[in-house]
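ok here's the first one, seq then struct tokens
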Amino acid sequence: MGMNRDERDLRQAIVMACREMTAAGINQGTSGNISVRVDGGILLTPSGLPYDQMTPEDIVFMAWDGGWTAREGNVPSTEWRFHLDILKAKPETGAVVHAHPAYCTILAIMQKSIPAIHYMIAAGGGNDVPCAPYAQYGTAELSQLALEALADRRACLLAHHGLIATGVSLRKAMWLAIEVETLAKQYHGCLQIGTPPLLPDEEIDSILRRWGQYGLRDRKPLAAVPSSAA
């Protein structure tokens, strides 16, 4: 499969992000999947291939019309539909991470959204991380429900399923996935004690207005330092 260096680097980044999901404890086995926007469509993890065996050549290219090309024997993730639909519907989004983190999944099984227990909820774009209603994996119905939950959010839970996190880049989508699992763990812990008090909407609105000063930043290249005159 011929590819230029930039595409190979992006495919390698997807492979490494998959392995990072396992190392960070937000996914198990091959149940998670990742997509990234590219010219003409998306790059998407294949179905059923263990991350420790995955190579850049295994990543599937899917066009916006749903047509795809892959190494022989590979097929797109069974969740390709919501990856494609999210990236088509949200042009500001560059990557989608789907995983089954333990605490997010516990809350999703209980059909609970994550409310404003902590100011970091703003990372998801609002005063909660909503939980989309249940639909069977891989279906158009699930994709539609996920799109509705993500209409003004960057992350959501899927009832009886797991987590979707998005970002302008793969790095930021991965960061958000880990942040949401941390919030889910905190909320789960609070529920063992009682009903937690929540931050008011106006406080989250204030955080959102300040968000440009916080969150994950892209490192800017160092400015060249002029050499001293001899």
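and now the second one, same deal
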Amino acid sequence: MPELNESQIRSFQQSRGLSVTGVIDAVTARALEEARWKLGDRSLNLQASPLMRGDDVAALQSRLTEMGFDCGRVDGIYGARTETAVKEFQKSVGINIDGKCGPATIISLLRLTRVVSGGAPLAMRENATRRNRGPALANKVIVLNPDGDDALVYDVALRTEGRLLALGASVFLTRGASNNPTETERIAFTNQSNADLMISLHLDQYINEHARGTATYFYGSDAHGVHSIVGERFASLVQREICARTDLVNCRTHAKTWDLLRLTRAPAVQIDLGYASSPGDVERISRPDFRDAIAEALVIAIQRLYLAAEDDAKTGTLRISDLRSAGIRR
């Protein structure tokens, strides 16, 4: 691969939904390696760790998903669920059922995807799962991930946890007050919790102290043409609720392919609660009343995610007391 200049690296990072730094770090190097592979370049199969990764795997998952085979999230990783979907496809077209995507399977895929399309099965499954769980928070499992080891971010998580517990939700935090698990450990913990939703709380940082505001991120990849429907919906809700209830600058919602969003099986979002490099944002999050406002915004956004359209309310108008008085917790 020819050497890339900073502009090319930035362009690649932008196109892949990565943090745009202009530097080839470990995450960017892995993405560059994945981008080398096109469907048909190699045979794909389930391997012992490390699993096969690449744009060819993502293309395979997308094609199978379009035809209604359940690969789960299109993440470009050839795991057990993808192997099962390949076997189901092979069985449906009458070729050797071995779970390996070799020449015969690829030829069958290319022939059929021209004439068969299931719409957006993954999006429909995500939405159906959300609807089937009902509006009450009492049967929801929410994982809160206070990123890093910042005490103020952890306090926001505790305030949110308390409000969710009062409404009957099951809540898990990925860390305690003094420990700081790795990102891989936090993802594994969330997946083992069978969560309905994972919310990662974060403070951003920048070399210029004038950078400020709140932003929310959900899993999405323009390169692979996929995104989390529920994740995007919740990101929009929580971004609007935070901006309606605080004076943080609105830095909008964004699709990213960060591992935390990509590898967490439940719909996941990361919320930047301001910039640690901004004196104004630090002053805000240092105030208990501000952290209370953030916690209330998070809980209301979670509840709105599960409400039917006819039961929803305008942004910034619901209060937690409204949820209790309406009996919605049950």
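notes on #2: The two ends are 58 Å apart (CA to CA). Strands lie at 141-146, 170-173, 197-204, 214-221, 226-227, 250-256, 268-275.
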